[in-house]
Automatic annotation (TrEMBL):
Pfam families: Porin_3. It comes from Nymphaea colorata (pocket water lily). Belongs to the eukaryotic mitochondrial porin (TC 1.B.8.1) family. One of its GO terms (molecular function) is voltage-gated monoatomic anion channel activity. This is Uncharacterized protein. One of its GO terms (cellular component) is mitochondrial outer membrane. InterPro entries: Porin_dom_sf (IPR023614), Porin_Euk (IPR001925), Porin_Euk/Tom40 (IPR027246).
Length: 91
């Protein structure tokens, strides 16, 4: 969809394989706007069926996700994102 306009480089580090805990850092460059974005995130398995993820980028966007496997082919996902630099603005 971006037609080669974005270049991304990411590094993932597994911290605990039993609890499926890992961290990630990503740098992306959008050539059409000359905009760079640096994102850090983490994921952690609360139990074998539940996963929590969070991320924050240098533009102040904070995102979180909770994912729970209900059955072998069904997954419930709750996620949200907000701009930490616009806390005073009304929606």
């Amino acid at each position: 969809a971006d037609k080669g306009d974005v270049l991304k480089v990411a590094y993932v580090q597994s911290i605990d394989q039993l609890k499926r805990t890992s961290t990630v850092a990503e740098i992306s460059r959008k050539f059409s706007t000359n905009q760079n974005t640096f994102t850090v995130g983490a994921s952690h398995a609360i139990d074998p069926l539940t996963l929590v993820k969070a991320r924050l980028n240098n533009h102040g966007k904070l995102g979180a996700l909770l994912q729970h496997q209900l059955k072998s082919a069904s997954v419930l996902t709750l996620s949200g994102e907000f701009d930490t630099k616009s806390l005073e603005k009304k929606p």
